[in-house]
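LAB NOTEBOOK - FOLDING QUEUE
OPERATOR: T.R.
BATCH SIZE: 2
PURPOSE: Compare the predicted structure-token outputs for two unrelated chains run back to back under identical settings.
PRIORITY: normal
REVIEWER: second-year student, initials M.K.

ITEM 1
FIELD SEQUENCE / FIELD STRUCTURE:
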Amino acid sequence: GMLAPDDATRGRRAVRLESVTVEGNQRVEDGAILAVLRTRRGEILDEAKVDQDVRALFGMGFFADVEADLD
């Protein structure tokens, strides 16, 4: 059978991530944050995985706000 893109990516070009960066953190080191993330540089953007990463960061209990931006 054929693979069909899910609704989140239908009609859009695949985006390969050039980098995954952390900004604005004050109490937690970048490395500790990046260790929790499943999204990695070089991968095709997976919005479901990014949503899971945001939830995982909130789950750490250190952040009042977590945003994922595509620049």
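ITEM 2
FIELD SEQUENCE / FIELD STRUCTURE:
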Amino acid sequence: ELSRLGADPTLMVGFRQAAQRTQGHAWVETRGAVAFEPDEVNTYVTAFSFGPYGQLERISGNATEAKGMS
């Protein structure tokens, strides 16, 4: 739905350490802003993200050009 509305969503996946456990979470960002999430999403470190059409955009927090990936 967000794509159809022209919001250019990105699916973000991150992890954090809490109470001696690794926790994972996924959230959506549009134009660099977190959509529909509480502020605690900022406690996660982005591991990877997916952009338009499910293309992998980022791995381990390092930006990667999707078209340059094989």
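REVIEWER COMMENT (ITEM 2): DSSP finds no helices and six strands in the chain.
FOLLOW-UP: none requested
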